[in-house]
Amino acid sequence: MKYILVTGGVISGIGKGIIASSIGTILKSCGLRVTAIKIDPYINIDAGTFSPYEHGEVFVLNDGGEVDLDLGNYERFLDINLYKDNNITTGKIYQHVINKERHGDYLGKTVQVVPHITDAVQEWVMNQAKVPVDDDRKEPQICVIEANSSFLFQLGGTIGDIEGMPFVEAFRQFQFKAKRENFCNIHVSLVPQPNATGEQKTKPTQNSVRALRGLGLSPDLIVCRSAKPIEMAVKEKISMFCHVEPEQVIFIHDVSSTYRVPILLEEQGIIKYFKQRLNLPIDDEPSDLLMKWKKMADRYERLLKVCSIALVGKYTKLSDCYASVFKALEHSALAINHKLDLMYIDSTELERSTEAENSVKYHQAWHKLCKADGILVPGGFGIRGTEGKLQAISWARTKKKPFLGVCLGMQLAVVEFARNCLNWKDANSTEFDPDTKNPVVIDMPEHNPGDMGGTMRLGKRRSVFKAQNSVLRKLYGDEIFVEERHRHRYEVNPELTHFFEEKGLKFVGHDTEGNRMEMIELDNHPYFVGVQFHPEFSSRPMKPSPPYLGLLLAATGTLNAYLQRGCKLSP
Hints:
Rossmann fold, 2 domains, nine-stranded mixed β-sheet, seven-stranded parallel β-sheet, globular, CTP synthase activity
């Protein structure tokens, strides 16, 4: 097993996740089996109870793990399926060690950070690195480990959060346990360019590398992030002052698409370096897989036609809150040769209360909604902004705008239909109004109202199509069932579904027992679809998610032609 540790310096959020994913993609293109692990220093067991404004979206895995959004990057880039144990947190490690102590595994010994916590980190990494993540179920050969930069190196070389130091010490020890030929450290740093001088500054990177060495880890590669391409003189300066060869300094400037990052890495000789440094049994040249990435990146940059989608949600101030939704839309837009114009609309700004408080915001939000080619209402929790989402859904239904509702978006589509087509004016979800006389969305039976963490219906579940002529069924290749990832507590009330079906809102898919409504479609509408699951988590750059693809096709007026061709994309 070969281990590649990716650390970060200067600031967080400079693209370690994309770089780690891109390195994995390059190695996979060379015929190697690659897995990935993300380490986060927080004491939470998982990301499930975070607000999206804390760390971005909560990404859900097949096994129901609620994890950091970077694992979504790994899955999309590498086309693999990870597990909840591929996301290590301080909380998980300490819980694991404390459980062992209570069990008596350390009987007679004082349990300490060193060696017990650090040993637990190393054992976890070694065990999880062996777990197959590809469809062929073979053991991986390479494990890319991304360490959250908030616990490593901040500006000026000062150490960040103290809670992460056990991980640093664990990997200082691990490099010797794994042996040099099996362990490689890549340090991602920032080369800022102040507007006042226009000069690219290397001092932050020098300080960051010095701090890294002070902790016992020496970088084999330094990946420098910058806004603009970095000059050769800067590369030579970093090489000289950071004690590495010039070919060990890699530059990644801001690019139009993340699809371009693996290409930039490959062009700077990273395959040849890994082959020599880790003694890998690979050729110097990449395979067809990387060539496909290059073609995809080239095609992305040449797109001329634009499709605009309005995303109506409550976490629109931070785009990472809907990272997988954006990627699923982007994959689908690329598949039909369109550039995506995603317009984020805060759902509260569509509500009448905003019109009274700030009429400019209200009218701007409605202007965005009205000019969009399609409308998407994603998942979410809580009552705030739901009335605005209902307004957007009503607009999409009555104006025959292509619409996709995901999770809460589907539930609210049912609520809107009940209020305006069945004339159940107080229809609601019991999440928002426990005493409603028309509870069209109710608590799911599996939900435990006690502890919040890990109590939802989570992970990959099977949904069975019950309608032959369903648009969604055709988009999924006329399959009998689909398996998609879920994350929700509430369900459409199965006792009321016949009222909706009589009026044209069809429940075209349900769970294997037939009790949980999984998919809806509206008759006599270009594309009015809702799904209880989260198809965005399974979308891949070269395999777009069918519900999202359907939305983009409908928004560009090409859905019917696509279905008539047997769901084959035009060249």
